[in-house]
Write a structure and sequence with these properties.
Leucine-rich repeat, LRR (right-handed beta-alpha superhelix); alpha/beta; 175 residues
């Protein structure tokens, strides 16, 4: 699969270069199940990128340049090896959907509250014991907050139940 995607990407890059372009203008990029262990910092050169799918890989860290993708609205990092999200995640001000299900997250950065347009936040199957109370700042736009299968403390579960309505949290919040 990677060879097919790489060949397609190379053809698109060659076509862009023939037109005298120095960068690609893509709105969506899927690098799902490509066995990626890291991302090249040049990811920031993909102008106009709105949706980035990096699920089902072996990513354990994210390059700082990823957070310079100013137009990003959807970021899928499900089923990787991430231990934390960098505080730079807060720079993705247009982000509407963040999916980090089934990683190894232990903490969320306070800067996650900077994602004021976030509508859906998926954190199922991580190692979260608590979440930052600054997450409450997202209660208005957030319509989906998935924290299932995390070892949340009772205090955190109580706080979530008071802060977010049952429709946002869904059933079986911390199964």
């Amino acid at each position: 699969m990677l060879k097919v995607n790489m060949k397609e990407a190379k053809n698109r890059i060659d076509a862009a270069r023939c037109k005298g372009l120095n960068s690609l203008d893509l709105s969506s990029l899927g690098l799902t199940t490509e066995d990626l262990a890291y991302l090249l910092p040049k990811i920031q050169k993909v102008e106009g990128l709105e949706r980035l799918y990096l699920n089902d890989n072996y990513l354990y860290a994210l390059p700082e340049n990823l957070f310079n993708l100013a137009w990003l609205k959807e970021l899928d990092l499900e089923d990787n090896l991430l231990i934390d999200l960098p505080s730079a995640i807060g720079k993705l001000s247009r982000l509407k959907k963040l999916d980090v299900n089934y990683n190894r997250l232990r903490l969320l950065p306070e800067e996650i509250s900077n994602l004021r347009k976030l509508v859906e936040l998926n954190l199922e199957g991580n190692h979260l014991i608590e979440v930052p109370e600054s997450l409450a700042e997202l209660a208005d736009p957030l319509v989906g907050l998935n924290l299932k299968n995390n070892p949340l403390t009772q205090r955190t579960m109580n706080w979530l139940a008071v802060t977010f309505d049952q429709y946002t949290l869904g059933d079986d919040m911390a199964a």
